[in-house]
Amino acid sequence: MLLPLPSFLNLPGAVPPNTAAALRAAAGLHVGGALAKAREAYQAILAQNPGHGEARLLAALADLRLGAGARAVAAMEALVQARPDDALARAALGAARLATGDAAAAEGLLAAAGALRPRDAQIPHLLAIAVLARKDRAAAERHLRAALDRDPGLWVARLLLVVLLVRSQRLDEAAALLHDPPPEPPAAEMDPVASVWRTFAPEDTYLEAARELAAALQAEGRDAEAIAACGLMVHLLPNQGRRHYDLGIALEAAGRIVDSLAAYQQAVRVSPGAYPPHAKVGSMLLVLGRLPEAIAACRECLRLQPGHAHALGHLAVALDEVGEGREAALLLDFDRLVRPRQFREDEVAGGLARLNADLRQALLTGADLKRLGNAVLTQGIDVDDIFPATRDPFDRLEALIRRSIAEYVAALPEDARHPYLACRPRTWWLKAWGTVLESGGWQAAHLHMEGWLSGTYYVAVPEAVRRGESTAGHLMLGRPPERMPLHARRRVITVRPAPGLTVMFPSYVFHQTVPFESLDPRLTISYDLRPAD
Length: 533
Description:
Helices cover 52% and strands 13% of the residues.
């Protein structure tokens, strides 16, 4: 876990010449996240004193976080051989085995080390990770609670327990773990080995804690608690841009646009090479009406990640708004980039009508499908785990969708200057989900940040939508979200749904559905082509 640099590292001057001070300085770099520099410092100590066990152990822990697991295992095996009675060395070897994927061996080593170091809080934390590899959540929770009994300030264990509880839908317990955090012991009061060992984690699962908890709390309308959880992570890890980004997401979901902009801007300052914060800065500036700044932020995101859907979508809107119609028109060229495709009855084995009937049955009654919350959805549900298809009838639909995507891509012209066409992915995968809209239901304007090409397939369409004179129940493309204070006239198109119709469009195009009234549901399966290269 990467925590703020200890205060003793703020002292001016070079690393002290004696070994103890050098080890302390190296450990400070390690705890602060400067792993490569810390390892160089450990190696400098070992060059002067090859038998220095503490430097060797800490160098191995740095190697584990740097991805050099085999080297760390070899170093720890040698240290255990040289110091067979050293329980910490044995525990560190267990950590190395765990980090390299040998959870069974790790569990045995850690259990033995725990018997020799009964007050070491890290050992049950690592044991929890080992037993999670064999999906024993109950044992993992017991180990994590034992770790926190020994050291309430062991944040790697506390956050992993939060993740475990959130994934078990025990939100109140998860929130309580972050509600009144115990104080951190002063790093300067710990010896170098203890300061590094207590913050070690072989994987980054715990970093998902605040994000997962925040999403679950927001789904229940508990915005203040979600923001507090993300704010705590910012406090613990101020030098990680992702923590500020997560806080921005929580603040934005609560409607605190100015505060979310500040969090995203801090994420940019901390991690200027990460592209998602730049995209979010651009969208928040657009919502606030600061158009030139929004355009600059979106362009910076696209410089770092060409073709990024969030940045392209907001850039197109901002350009349209400031009168840069020619460039906006390239991105919003619906005639060329939006493609409906109506499948025929004979294009599907067994017939299109049978496929749609089977899809309807699966969406409405499939017990193995995961129901999702969705901030843009009103009067309906989303259903996940559809593609990659591993079962009927979704495998039949996936074959159709892949065929239509191939046709879409083949029809696109080559244009190295077009910000979308120039970023055609060489390799990709499909993500799909179902949506069941009931009477009065609709989806607000949104885009798909992680996709390159998006689409929707109509499984069942109410008669009132299929044959009505209004646009009720239609797909609408080109209208940005209402929260943006926009004035320019812009082109908006609608598509009337029909069973067996799929509509494909760039993922950066804002789209929504029009509310409708009917006793019958409107069933769709939406999908993203997501770049894998």
